[in-house]
Amino acid sequence: MDKIKIITIFGTRPEAIKMAPLVKELEKRERIDIKVCVTAQHRQMLDQVLELFNIVPQFDLNIMKSKQTLTGITTRVLEGLEEIFEMEKPDMVLVHGDTTTTFAGALAAFYKQIPLGHVEAGLRTFNKYFPFPEEINRKLTGSIADLHFAPTKGSRDNLLREGVNEKDVYITGNTVIDAMEYTVEDNYEFDNEELNNLNYEDKKIIMVTAHRRENWGEGIENICTALKNIVENNEDVEIVYLVHLNPVVKDIVYKHLDGVRRVHLLPPLDTKETHNLMNKCFMVMTDSGGLQEEAPHLGKPVLVLRDVTERPEAVEAKTVKLVGTDVNRIIEEANDLIRDKEKYLKMSKAINPYGDGLASKRITDIILKYFYK
Q: With 80 as the cut, is the pLDDT of residue 1 above it?
């Protein structure tokens, strides 16, 4: 057959980080004609990743709107992809993870009967509203996919329990580990001077992100209350909170933490800056999914500010700990790591279950085998 035409689709920064090394690997293969389509569900943060990895999309739906809804995102992606698929007639579509772009991209491929590969398949919390809408996005995508690239054995097992044919499921590791090979540098200098001026040797710098939809309101309020207590009762601690641009999150964070001594409120960093801050910091507190995979690769303990996680492998490996959004629980668990060196070392030296940096190569090899049997 002629070259395999593959279209990769992603629209948010986390998707882009994890798809970028796969795009770069696909570009290396002579038998593959790779085209990139971005939906720009998140515009600014997506563009930062594209620039970092030197990826120029062939198609950009540019769908982002102020106060966009899930319905609006879904319909704009479906309509935009229909035109692209009719024109390009790809042999396969690749989507990643669990965003609304992911589900809409999978559905658009299904409507055109195009084979679908799902990268980072099989993550589950088994609660359709936590995280919302991601849990249902990934389950529906899994119902459509032809090839399932599961990052871990646990993810594969989830798919098999749901009736997915074993021959269509592959354990590959997580491509986010591949991405960090491009981004983390020794003696890194930040663009932000506030970060360059932090004392990473003598202070315990805690990196924080918290923005997920299920934490809006009381959850973010509780997280901020706990962070204020932690920094006020540990003189050797400084907090760097990367505050999401969404006013629903930003307004609460600034109300509680703006002006608090040793708390640094910064806008989201680009991927390279984020990875290097993780590399330098003491530990991470987050409700992000991706950071649960990335930080342990760098030996950083993670306190997960959620009640459930679709990444139980990290909990089992003891690289992360679920603490939820209860104020007292957050304070207690953070203080344990700050004050108990043995507990800290036990978490920081646990083996990361998410792979060895070769996931993109494995996925590409599997795709080639799928077409060249």
A: no
Which of the following is catalytic: 96, 138, 244, 311? 244
Instruction: Kindly give the interhelix angle for 100-111 and 134-144, rounded to the nearest 10 degrees.
Output: 20
**DSSP per position, 252-318:** HHHHHHTT-TTEEEEPPPPHHHHHHHHHHSSEEEE--SHHHHHHHHTT--EEE-SS--S-HHHHHHT
Residue 211 annotated in active site? yes
Domain formed by 193-349, architecture = 3-Layer(aba) Sandwich (3.40)
C-alpha–C-alpha distance, residues 221 and 279, integer Å: 27
Smallest CA-to-CA distance from 336 within 349, 323, 326 is with 323
- Residue 48, pLDDT score: 85
* Residue 351: DSSP 8-state: P
Instruction: Locate the domains of the chain by residue range.
Output: 4-176+356-372, 193-349
Lookup: tokens for 228: 């204020």
Which pLDDT value is given to residue 212? 86
Is the preceding omega at residue 131 within 30 degrees of 0, hence cis?
Answer: yes
SS (H, E, C) 83-143: HHHHHHCCCEEEEECCCHHHHHHHHHHHHCCCCEEEECCCCCCCCCCCCCCHHHHHHHHHH
Query: 36-76, pLDDT tens digit by residue?
Result: 999 998 788 789 899 999 999 999 998 888 888 999 999 99
Q: Which of 15, 91, 98, 273 is catalytic?
A: 98
193-349 shares the fold of 4-176+356-372:
yes
What SS3 class is residue 59?
A: strand
* Active-site entry in 25, 134, 238, 294: 134
**Phi-psi region at 187: left, alpha or beta (left = phi > 0; alpha = psi -120 to 50):** left
**The pLDDT value given to residue 135:** 96
Average pLDDT along the chain:
95
| Residue 120 annotated as catalytic | yes
213 is catalytic: yes
> 4-176+356-372 adopts what CATH topology?
Rossmann fold (3.40.50)
> Can 244 be counted among the known catalytic residues?
yes
